């Protein structure tokens, strides 16, 4: 039921209950209709609101049910200030009057009815708390706020929101008993509500003078009021005095002065993944290696910090973990320490002479290439010799080697090495870049007073022994050696190109396959920058279809078109010394004082922020990493986690107190911090046990130790409500966090928002947080079946048009109605940035501007474009390889190019009736596969780059095939008379990359072929075949699937794993064994009662395998997944329809599973 009003909390027989509800609803509806028709209600929203209420009231009178009554009351609660006349001619808010009548609260029987109501609500509240049903508690707080038990629910929800750092939500729940009903008569209760609101205003950091004035007014009105604040009971005057003295409340300066008062960090919101990493770091490190020592690595307690953190990312060591080895570079040597035994091996020594003034590991020169290759640049630095004074001895010739090692459990084998020619005053100028089976390096040379940078490209494959493919000078970046010491180039991959960035804005895009320079930018004049440069800072990165670079000489951050080199925008950012990365339309910049976020599209401060926000200085002390929405950030005051949306702390500021700041990395379940003296490795309990080391005792954080005394204080009544979310199954790694269910009825779908998710059902749209809390719910003007979040606007589309809602409040911003209506179907509408492309009924297209909410333009195809009636657009195959270009196939095999900027629809080919089967795209390129086996490649302007006939036309069955992209190449699957043909093709030319195509038996559902890591999962018969995409060979073994001819699995990637949804075969008993641990699942009856959610986690460990044993006469099969991923059962769902395919939705730390009538929220 979509609505529960106070009366429904009482126990009545179903017939009496409905009669009781109607007896109270009819007076309300007649009054609403009468006053709405004659305009006696002063609606603030005008005629539209009045008409909507009239329509809803008539609907309820025509078909009376509790659902319609609930929607009506919901509308009333959104407009509570609408005044109506009560029995005694007094004007009261409509929402309050309606709730009073529904609750049966008359002036004569009010006390008795309220007492009965309170008993029922209290009983429901106790049941909900025991069951852990957070949604039921929220419903009680919303609908029963006029009684003591309802007020208690609101207070508890507000306290819970405050503990999570959601101040606005806390105020919302605390004020719930005040609105729309009057609060309970108790003076103390009213004082407790006001005290909590004042506490939230303190947390929000309001002006101190205003806060003092409100606090004084409160203490004057309620001098003897008592209650609980932050877990302590007592008189409010004493509690507020204690809070002010201790200054426990968080504010923007928390980044800088948290150490002075760590207790306040209990109010900072906490996320699961940073908390998990912080728990690892609260223990002793699994391994600690002293930089510069080949032997005697330290285990156990962390070594003392001999040097304070340095305020810049100028740290020199960037280690790698390829289990079971910790690998790092020292000078021209590559050292590796075993994570289990702690023994160190010297894997390679280039034997290059280096001066005593060399800094070990000066250049970040290690790169890891899956599954087990490590590439390193080894060369001398000679820091002072590179800046010669007059009359000084010139530097010796450059001696450099590029080395490729293959890692195994016993150590490493040298695959190949390439020696560079001797030059005067040369050095490696960037870390190696590995892409498409090639390795690219940059070498800077000074010769006869001029500087040049030369790029070298080698084959990574050991069969070519590091053969040099091409070498070139992309551009010359002027400036003396003394301008910017250290590594001054950056290499970034972008599609099939490598982007080189030098000094003073010099850039070039080089095609990695051929070495052809696509575009280049010459250096600009700039004043030499004083002080050391960040040797390891990121200067350029490619994200969200854009290229972003930092011009250090001018402190400029630029957005660049990666396909033409055009500067789209530039923004001066004083003190910028590196780029962190991109997240959700934001570019994160590291500065000398902290962090700064700029808008991705124009470089403005829209959606931007600065951390610390109060102007304090908090320089970085190493290189961090992005983890979804969270940045794990090393600073001079310690390691913190920052929220990329707000720039505020994302977790307790003390959770990393035991780990020293430095260059950070998260690799294979290990957390690494590399400083100037030590490399510290932290890991989970499973990793400790894996290496045969005893799990250490925890060392409490400052916040935990300081909170011991506070735990002895009296517990408030609201804190006694605790929820027990038990796992749905033993030995499950995930737990159900907020299960809720209900009959979705008709169309039901979910979609991901920026910090929330949307649920579309019953012509209503709900926005909920990832913990299941309802933010808002709104009625839609017409039935809709499509939802997407776009630029702070929720877009909902139905047959009549598109509606834009404010993402924060749910209010309607605009409504774009399309003449003749929209055509619903696969892929319609298609979201293309700020535009929404919709297929109209018939043969037209409608393009809607989602910013202004208007119908931008319509297009009707010319008569020659549609030779046959009944043809239609196939938006399900539309692809957008560039910002302004959209490729649109039609049902007759035609192909069209839609240019958004020019508002032009161009026909590229007619197709001659041969339909398109599948499409794919890489940056700037369109790929299409037709049912006759023809494959096309076109550039962003629609020009044909190449075309090939993948199979003879006589082999084709006319069934649709598939196209997938993998590592800048194409995976083509084509049904033929011989079977399903799978081949890997180059993207730049019609060339096969596998020695021969792979022929598989008949495939059930080609459209469900999935690419995970380096493996393709292909549904063949009653199993899923595994294909290694690197070699083009089938991997022995199988994954159990549904019955033959009906594939019912789905997968979604989140963090470092891929979740695979599958159904075991009927009457199967599946046993999974791994490392001595076994799980067995045996369905009962003809159909399995449960559906398995399995996890595929990438792994590099060798020699491990998975055994799937079937007891249905199929014998035992061995599935060797050692270089690919582990296969671990995660969760079983029971009591659902057999073979139901779910909808999976993931956020940073949670996964939603949408089944018929039920949505589960899972937490890794």
Number of DSSP helices?
15
Biggest β-sheet: count, sense, barrel? 5 strands, antiparallel
Helix content: 10-25%
Provide the low-confidence segments as ranges.
1-24, 27-47, 83-91, 97-110, 178-189, 246-254, 256-269, 293-308, 354-362, 382-392, 479-486, 530-535, ...
Query: How far apart, in Å, are the first and last alpha carbons?
Result: 31 Å
**Shape field:** globular
Given the helix and strand composition, which structural class is it?
Answer: alpha+beta
Kindly state the number of beta strands. 77
Radius of gyration: 33 Å
Write the layout of secondary structure elements.
Blueprint: H1 14-37, H2 47-62, H3 66-78, E1 83-85, E2 91-93, H4 94-102, H5 110-131, H6 134-143, H7 148-163, H8 167-174, H9 187-204, H10 208-221, E3 226-229, E4 232-235, H11 236-246, H12 254-257, H13 272-281, E5 287-290, E6 320-322, E7 325-330, E8 333-338, E9 344-349, E10 366-369, E11 373-379, E12 400-407, E13 412-419, E14 426-428, E15 433-435, E16 438-447, E17 450-459, E18 468-472, E19 490-494, E20 497-501, E21 507-511, E22 517-521, E23 540-543, E24 546-551, E25 556-560, E26 567-572, E27 576-582, E28 586-591, E29 595-599, E30 609-611, E31 625-627, E32 630-635, E33 638-643, E34 663-667, E35 670-674, E36 678-683, H14 685-690, H15 702-710, E37 735-736, E38 740-741, E39 748-752, E40 757-761, E41 764-768, E42 774-779, E43 784-790, E44 793-798, E45 801-806, E46 812-817, E47 830-832, E48 835-839, E49 844-849, E50 854-860, E51 879-882, E52 885-889, E53 895-899, E54 904-909, E55 916-922, E56 925-930, E57 934-939, E58 944-949, E59 962-966, E60 969-975, E61 980-986, E62 998-1000, E63 1010-1012, E64 1015-1020, E65 1023-1028, ...
Helix pairs in contact: 1-2, 2-3, 3-4, 5-6, 5-7, 6-7, 7-8, 8-9, 9-10
């Amino acid at each position: 039921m979509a609505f529960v009003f106070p009366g429904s909390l009482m126990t009545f027989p179903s017939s009496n209950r409905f009669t009781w509800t109607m007896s109270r609803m009819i007076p309300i509806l007649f009054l609403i209709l009468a006053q709405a028709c004659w305009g006696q209600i002063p609606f603030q929203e005008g005629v539209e609101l009045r008409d909507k209420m009239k329509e809803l009231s008539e609907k309820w009178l025509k078909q009376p049910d509790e659902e319609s009554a609930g929607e009506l009351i919901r509308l009333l609660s959104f407009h509570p200030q609408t005044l109506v006349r009560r029995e005694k001619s007094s004007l009261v808010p409509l929402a309050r009057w309606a709730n009073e009548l529904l609750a049966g609260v008359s002036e004569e029987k009010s006390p008795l009815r309220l007492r009965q109501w309170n008993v029922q609500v209290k009983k429901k509240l106790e049941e909900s708390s025991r069951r852990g049903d957070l949604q039921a508690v929220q419903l009680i707080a919303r609908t029963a706020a006029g009684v003591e038990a309802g007020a208690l629910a609101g207070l508890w929800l507000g306290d819970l929101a405050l503990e999570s750092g959601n101040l606005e939500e806390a105020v919302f729940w605390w004020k719930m008993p005040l609105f729309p009903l009057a609060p309970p008569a108790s003076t103390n209760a009213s004082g407790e509500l006001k005290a909590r609101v004042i506490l939230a205003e303190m947390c929000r950091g309001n002006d101190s003078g205003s806060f003092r004035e409100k606090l004084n007014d409160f203490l004057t009105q309620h001098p003897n009021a008592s209650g609980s604040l932050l877990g302590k009971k007592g008189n409010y005057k004493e509690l507020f005095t204690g809070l002010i003295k201790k200054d426990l409340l968080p504010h923007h300066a928390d980044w800088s002065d948290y150490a002075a008062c760590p207790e306040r960090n209990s109010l900072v919101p906490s996320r699961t993944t940073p908390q998990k990493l912080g728990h690892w770091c609260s223990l002793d490190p699994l391994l600690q290696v002293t930089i510069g020592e080949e032997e005697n690595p330290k285990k156990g307690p962390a070594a003392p910090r001999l040097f304070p953190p340095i305020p810049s990312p100028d740290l020199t060591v960037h280690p790698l973990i390829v289990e079971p080895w910790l690998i790092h570079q020292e000078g021209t040597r590559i050292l590796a320490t075993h994570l289990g035994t702690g023994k160190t091996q010297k894997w390679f020594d280039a034997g290059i002479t280096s001066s005593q003034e060399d800094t070990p590991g000066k250049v970040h020169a290690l790169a890891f290439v899956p599954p087990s290759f490590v590439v390193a640049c080894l060369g001398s630095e000679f820091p002072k010799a590179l800046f010669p004074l007059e009359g000084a001895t010139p530097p010796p010739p450059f001696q450099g080697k590029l080395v490729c090692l293959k890692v195994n459990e016993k150590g490493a084998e040298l695959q190949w090495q390439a020696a560079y020619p001797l030059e005067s005053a040369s050095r490696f100028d960037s870390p190696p870049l590995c892409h498409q089976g090639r390795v690219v390096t940059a070498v800077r040379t000074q010769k006869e007073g001029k500087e040049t940078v030369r790029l070298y490209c080698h084959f990574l494959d050991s069969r070519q022994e590091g053969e040099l493919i091409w070498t070139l000078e992309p551009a010359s970046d002027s400036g003396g050696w003394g301008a910017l010491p250290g590594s001054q180039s950056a290499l970034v991959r972008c599609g099939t190109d490598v982007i080189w960035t030098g000094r003073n804005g010099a850039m070039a895009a080089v095609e990695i396959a051929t070495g052809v320079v696509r575009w280049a930018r010459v250096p600009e004049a700039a004043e030499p920058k004083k002080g050391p440069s960040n040797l390891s800072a990121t200067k350029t990165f490619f994200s969200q279809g854009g290229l972003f670079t930092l011009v250090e000489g001018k402190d400029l951050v630029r957005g660049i078109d990666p396909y033409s080199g055009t500067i789209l925008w530039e923004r001066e950012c004083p003190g910028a010394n590196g780029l962190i990365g991109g997240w959700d339309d934001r570019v994160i910049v590291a500065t000398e004082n902290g962090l700064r976020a700029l808008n991705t599209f124009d470089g403005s401060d829209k959606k931007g922020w600065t951390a610390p926000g109060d102007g304090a200085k908090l320089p970085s002390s190493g290189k961090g990493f992005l983890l979804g929405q969270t940045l794990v950030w090393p600073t001079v005051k310690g390691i913190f986690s920052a929220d990329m949306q707000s720039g505020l702390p994302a977790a307790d500021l003390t959770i990393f107190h035991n780990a020293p700041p430095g260059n950070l990395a998260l690799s294979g379940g290990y957390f690494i911090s590399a400083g100037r003296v030590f490399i510290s490795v932290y890991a989970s309990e499973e990793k400790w046990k894996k290496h045969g080391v005893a799990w250490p005792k925890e060392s409490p954080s400052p916040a935990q130790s300081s909170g011991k005394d506070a735990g002895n204080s009296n517990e408030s009544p609201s804190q006694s409500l605790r929820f027990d979310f038990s796992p749905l199954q033993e030995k499950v790694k995930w737990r159900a966090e907020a299960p809720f269910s209900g009959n979705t009825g008709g169309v039901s779908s979910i979609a991901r928002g920026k910090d929330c998710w949307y649920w579309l059902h019953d012509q209503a749209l709900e926005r909920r947080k990832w913990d299941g809390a309802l933010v808002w719910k709104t009625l839609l003007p017409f039935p809709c079946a499509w939802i997407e979040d776009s630029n702070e606007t929720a877009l909902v589309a139905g047959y009549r048009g598109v509606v834009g809602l404010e993402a924060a409040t749910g209010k309607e911003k605009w409504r774009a109605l399309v003449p003749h209506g929209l055509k619903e179907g696969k892929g319609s509408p298609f979201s293309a940035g700020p535009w929404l492309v919709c297929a109209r009924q018939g043969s037209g297209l409608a393009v809607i501007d989602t910013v202004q909410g208007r119908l931008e333009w319509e297009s009707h195809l010319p008569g020659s474009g549609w030779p046959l009636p009944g043809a239609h657009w196939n938006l399900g195959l539309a692809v957008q390889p560039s910002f302004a270009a959209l490729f649109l196939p039609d049902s007759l095999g035609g192909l069209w190019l839609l240019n958004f900027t020019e508002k032009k629809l161009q026909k590229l080919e007619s197709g001659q009736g041969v339909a398109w089967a599948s499409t794919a795209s890489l940056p700037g390129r369109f790929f299409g596969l037709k049912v006759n086996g023809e494959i096309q490649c076109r550039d962003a302007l629609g020009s044909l780059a190449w075309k090939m006939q993948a199979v003879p036309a006589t082999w084709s069955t006319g069934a649709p095939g598939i196209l997938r992209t993998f590592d800048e190449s194409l995976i083509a699957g084509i049904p033929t008379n011989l079977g399903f043909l799978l081949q890997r093709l180059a993207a730049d030319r019609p060339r096969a990359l596998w020695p021969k195509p792979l022929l598989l038996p008949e495939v059930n559902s080609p459209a469900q072929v999935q690419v995970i890591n380096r493996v393709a999962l292909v549904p063949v018969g009653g199993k899923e075949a595994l294909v290694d995409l690197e070699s083009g060979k089938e991997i022995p073994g199988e994954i159990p699937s549904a019955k033959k001819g009906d594939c019912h699995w789905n997968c979604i990637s989140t963090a470092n794993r891929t979740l695979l949804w599958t159904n075991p075969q009927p009457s199967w008993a599946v046993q999974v064994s791994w490392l001595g641990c076994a799980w067995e699942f045996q369905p009962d009856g003809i159909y399995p009662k449960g559906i398995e959610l399995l996890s595929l986690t990438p792994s590099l460990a060798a020699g491990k395998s998975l055994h799937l044993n079937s007891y249905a006469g199929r014998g035992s099969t061995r599935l060797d997944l050692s270089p690919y991923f582990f296969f671990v059962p995660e969760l079983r769902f029971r009591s659902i329809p057999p073979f139901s395919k779910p909808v999976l939705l993931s956020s940073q730390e949670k996964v939603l599973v949408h089944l018929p009538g039920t949505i589960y929220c899972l937490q890794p």
